[in-house]
Design goal:
The protein has a domain of 98 residues: Alpha-Beta Plaits, CATH 3.30.70. 28% of the residues lie in helices and 14% in strands. It has a 3-stranded antiparallel sheet. A two-stranded antiparallel sheet has the order 1-6. Strands 3-4 form a two-stranded antiparallel ribbon. Strand 3 and strand 4 form a beta hairpin. The longest helix is centred in the N-terminal third of the chain and has 30 residues. The protein binds iron/sulfur cluster (SF4) (2 copies). The site of one iron/sulfur cluster (SF4) has 15 residues, from helix 3.
Length: 214
């Protein structure tokens, strides 16, 4: 008798469980007649609107992205002071910079920082980038930013190396030559007349000691 009761109880539970699963499936089928409205993630109730067809017909339709999306890097090269901080902090060495020292100030960035170094090369290999964003946090002039551009697929991974420097080969040669000449002219400065201390000598520090009792 007890065996019979258990038998019917199992059938009842299995039926209830199957019905529960089917009910959920049917509910989703009904809701899947409409597509999810792609609101920005900042919209109130964003996570309550996730029922419906979530697949979008990309590239005809795209999901809105937050403004602080961290995708492709961009360097506003006119504001770059070629300090190399971004390259130094990058954990995967995907930023390559070739600096050339200028012989004088060459301009100012939009925030007023003086520029004294040319960028003969400023390459970012997005094929290696792990999108950590560290390079943007150390950039003193905030010229290096992560943008919302996420679709930059290519057929050849080498095309993921983006060059931001704008100098021509002739410009680079000119600036290198000017630096060499400047360094040579500094190296052959005439020695100071005998008896005179060289101009670069550090001034002797004489502490002022008051006589006792004054
Ligand atoms: S985001 Fe990270 S990995 Fe990519 S270039 Fe910047 S520091 Fe390097
Ligand atoms: S940290 Fe900023 S200013 Fe310095 S080299 Fe990199 S991009 Fe240029």
């Amino acid at each position: 008798m007890e065996q019979q009761t258990g038998y019917w109880r199992n059938i009842r539970e299995a039926t209830r469980s199957v019905w529960g699963g089917l009910r959920l499936t049917f509910r989703h089928i009904v809701k899947a007649r409409k597509s999810v409205v792609n609101h920005s993630i900042k919209t109130e109730g964003y996570f309550d609107q996730q029922e419906g067809i979530a697949t979008v017909q990309y590239p005809h339709v795209s999901i809105p992205l937050p403004d602080n999306g961290r995708y492709k890097l961009h360097n506003e090269i006119d504001d770059c002071i070629v300090c190399d901080k971004c390259a130094k902090i990058c954990p995967v060495n995907c930023i390559t910079i070739e600096p050339i020292k200028a012989t004088e100030e060459i301009g100012r960035t939009s925030d007023g920082t003086p520029k004294r170094i040319y960028a003969a090369k400023f390459d970012i290999d997005m094929g290696k980038c792990c999108f950590c964003g560290l390079c943007t946090t150390v950039c003193p002039t905030e010229c290096l930013t992560m943008t919302k551009t996420y679709d930059f697929s290519v057929f050849d991974i080498r095309e993921h190396n983006y060059a931001f420097a704008e100098m021509t080969a002739a410009d680079i040669a000119d600036k290198k030559k000017a630096l060499e000449e400047h360094q040579k002219s500094k190296a052959v400065q005439p020695p100071p007349p005998s008896g005179e201390a060289p101009k670069t000598a550090r001034p002797v520090f004489k502490p002022k000691i008051k006589p006792p009792g004054t």
